[in-house]
Structure formats: structure tokens, C-alpha cells
Amino acid sequence: MINRDLIEVFSDIAREKNVERSELATILEELFLYVIEKEYGDSSNCSCIVNLDKGEIEIYSEKTIVKEVDDYKVEITLEEAIGKEPDAEGDLDVGDVFVEVIDPRIFGRRLVTTAKQFFAQRLRDIERNYIYEDYINRVGEIVIGAVHQIQGGNVFINIDKTELRMPRNEQILAERYRRGDTIRAVIKSVEFTSKGPDIVISRSDNHFLYKLFEMEVPEIEDGIIDITAIARHPGSRAKIIVKSNDRRIDPVGACVGMRGSRIQAIVRELNNEKIDIINSSEQAEILVSRALSPAKPVQLFIDDDKNYCIALFEDENLDAAIGKNGMNVNLASKVTE
Fold first, then answer.
1. DSSP 8-state secondary structure symbol assigned to residue 16
2. Taking every annotated instance into account, which residue ranges of this chain make up the domain S1 motif (predicted)?
3. How does pLDDT run across 209-225, given as a tens digit for each residue?
């Protein structure tokens, strides 16, 4: 019923956008129903069948046979019905349902213009759905992309024409980003909005640090070593607690690596963020003492019921215990919660 060339044009566009043939057929069916609704105000009595292999599109409209037509969109006279289907003259009567075949050519040039607009919009919708389905299953993964633009405090990163957003609160504040910079970050969340998927990435999230260790330390990826807690002041300092599931392996040494190779790679990625690696302990006193490193407390008073601890230090160790702007003691508190 319709020129095969039109379907081939749409098929070529769909292939460029990686749209499956089954979805293309659905789009074309929706397209013609949309054109009918735009032309007549209603398409509820119409149906469309697309055969991509034959290059055919058939459109049908169900109408009730009446003596006098009040609404030509859903009604037809017996004479008109017989005129369209002469072979069915003896089988048709007033009150019957008549299926009329609609020739797409009646829409004229409007069909081409409307088709292009509708098809482009539906392809955008499908692309957005593909992107959403892809990235929603990748939350927690590390990705690498190039900075596309910086606007309103957000850093926008492109990966294979997909735009990801790093808000100000997910950035390492000491870092400065420029267009074209290559950035590594963790996918934090994916939400579907009216403008498409909003894919938020982060360099300040604790999970980013966890994934970096997982990449650099095979024992963590293999489950031999566990990171049980992380506390960060992104770009400045972090403390992590590690635990070995194999007595033969030192978790701190494994994370540091030969001559510090593993930890140095992570520190460089985080703009020289200092990282304290703490060996886990079942004894609260030992764990808290290790967490307060580099300072060594003289005495600890721990109230397990109130989850509270008082640490006493020598005067010369007090500054190191507190840290710059209270950073050391705050991180120690968070990582041992």
C-alpha cells in the first residue's frame, strides 16, 4: 500500500541509532495512528499493521454502517460501503461493522513532515531508554570520560555521546576541571527525567575510593581482604579499615603494595589525598588507637553503651591527634562508628 522506499529510509535511520526491527515496526504503527489522530481528532477505531519484510503498511478503520452519517470518522452509509467493497454487497447491511482500508496517500505531504518529526522524537525516546537501562545497571561502577562543559557548578562528561553530570558536591573541591580533561569517577545514581536520563557521577563519594582500591588491590576484588569502613575528607585525607580473611596475608601491606606502588596510584588519582590504612581489630581500644594514628593516645575511656570514647594524649601529640581543622579526630570518629 505504501512505497517501500519510505520504510527503507526509516530502516536506515533506525540502524544508525541501533533500533531493533521490532521496535521500528511499533514506531511506524504508532506514527500512522498519530497522523490519523492529528487529522481526524481520534484514532481509537483504527489499526495499523506493518510488514517490514514486504515493505507494506496497512491501515484499517472500523465504521458502523448507517442510513445517514452523523460522524464520518466512525460511520459510513451502506451505499458507500458497497462502493468500496462491491464483492460484499449481499453480505452488508445497516448496523454492520465495515472495515475501511485507508490509503496513506490521502495525507499528502503532511505525512512526510509529520513522519519525520514523530520518528525523530520516538528515536530520541528509545535512545534515552537504552541509555537509562544501560547505566541503571552500572551504578557503583567506575567510568572514564572527557569533560564536555562546565556550567552552574556541574561538570558534564561525555562517554560515547552520553552525557554524565558531576555536581559540585560530588567533586573534589581542590580539583579544577577544564574542557577536554579525562576524568575517572563512580556512577552514583541514575534517574529518568523529562529531559532524559540524569546520570550522576562522583569523585568525592566513599564508594569511589572503595572501587579504586578494588582496582589496584586484587586481594580485595577476590574477597581475601575486606574494606569494612571508609571515612573521607575528599582531596585532603581518608581513613579506611581493612580486614584479611586469610591469616597469611597482611591487609595493610597488600593495600600499600610493593614500595607503596598500589597506594601511590590511588593517591595520585585523588589529587594527593592522604590515606590511612587501618588494620581491623575486634578490640575497640586497639581499633580506636589505630584510627587516631599518627598520634598515640595515652589512655582511652570507651563507653560501648553510649558509643562514646574519650582519648587522652601527651601534649606533644595533641595537635597530631586533632589534625588540621579537627580532620584527624573527626575521620577517626566516623571510621570507627
1. H
2. 140-204
3. 999 999 999 999 999 99
Considering only CA atoms, which of 150, 167, 158, 169 is closest in space to residue 131? 158
Burial class (CB in 10 A: 0-12, 13-18, 19+), 227: buried
Start-to-end C-alpha separation, the chain: 72
Helix axes 21-40, 4-16, angle to 10 degrees: 120
Q: Please state, as a whole number, how many other Cβ atoms lie within 10 Å of the Cβ of residue 266.
A: 19
Among 158-172, 180-194, 285-299, the range scoring the smallest mean pLDDT is: 285-299
Q: Which CATH number fits domain 142-202: 3.40.50.1100, 3.40.30.10, 1.10.230.10, 2.40.50.140?
A: 2.40.50.140
For residue 132, the SS3 value is helix
| Contacts (Cβ under 8 Å, ≥6 apart) of 309 | 284, 288, 300, 301, 302, 303, 336
Strand pairing class (274-279; 237-244): parallel
**Helix residue ranges, H only, 75-228:** 78-84, 109-136, 206-216, 218-221
Strands 182-193 and 196-202: what pairing?
antiparallel
The three-state secondary structure class of 177 is coil
List, for residues 17-74, the tens digit of each pLDDT value.
Answer: 667 777 778 888 888 888 888 777 888 889 888 887 777 778 888 999 898 888 888 8
CA angle, corner 255, sides to 321 and 337, nearest 5?
45
Question: What ranges in the chain are assigned the alpha helix state H?
Answer: 4-16, 21-40, 78-84, 109-136, 206-216, 218-221, 251-256, 261-269, 284-291, 315-322, 327-335
Q: Which is the CATH superfamily of the domain at 206-335?
A: K homology (KH) domain (3.30.300.20)
For the entire predicted model, the pTM comes to 0.73
C-alpha cell at 151: 556550567
